[in-house]
Amino acid sequence: MKNLTSDRWLDQCLPQTQAALLAQGRSRRYGKGEGIHQIGDPATELFFIRSGAVRFGAVNKEGKALIVRDLTAGHWFGFIGCYGSGIRPNDASALTDTVLVHVPLSAVEVAGKADPLLWRAVSGVLAGYVGHFYKTYENAVFLPLEQRLRVALAQLCKWQATTTLSISQSELAALLGVTKEAVGVNLNLLKADGQVDLGYRSVRCLWLET
């Protein structure tokens, strides 16, 4: 079984499984910047992003922010908390006006009885998370910051389905766990090499357009 992404994890299930899950969910609209859950909240439901985008991260006691990842419409989330410790491992907030469908675990249990392939799909998503975070750690150890930045930009472009990212240097620093100044230096190196165009709170990844 290959690792599955959070937007395609139900592809190997019966065609009616996703419809059955969403039918048991409740929709809720979130405004830009509104919190969805916090670290330590009980994990009792999965979420489907019907529209908009969600950012995951954390803030330490000193106020330093870490951005874990962003997800856009069509993705599901909440697996790690629901099928791990039972609590949310990160904070989640709406990047834009967003509509989520909250699907209770009881509905997932019912769907899993009707379609046992659902549990194989959940395992595939969790395996995908393990692979992603292992690769992120490996890159932090072995790659110079310029390459780590390039990898992170490519991943963000993939998640957001664009080559022009609306993101600040501070947000990139939070994503990579480095200083804003270090990000600025390495963005300018990429710009000098013709790989990116820089604007106010934006990065255009030129190498992805060729």
UniProtKB/TrEMBL annotation:
Keywords assigned by UniProt, alphabetized: Plasmid
Q: Name one GO cellular component term.
A: cytosol
Q: Which InterPro entries match?
A: cNMP-bd_dom (IPR000595), cNMP-bd_dom_sf (IPR018490), Env_Response_Regulators (IPR050397), RmlC-like_jellyroll (IPR014710), WH-like_DNA-bd_sf (IPR036388), WH_DNA-bd_sf (IPR036390)
The Cyclic nucleotide-binding domain is annotated at 28-103
Q: Which Gene3D superfamilies match?
A: Jelly Rolls, Winged helix-like DNA-binding domain superfamily/Winged helix DNA-binding domain
Keyword Endoplasmic reticulum assigned to the entry: answer is no
- Kindly list the GO molecular function terms attached to this UniProt entry: DNA-binding transcription factor activity
Record carries keyword Acetylation: no
Taxonomic superkingdom: Bacteria
Q: What protein is this chain from? A: Putative transcriptional regulator
Protein species of origin: Phaeobacter inhibens
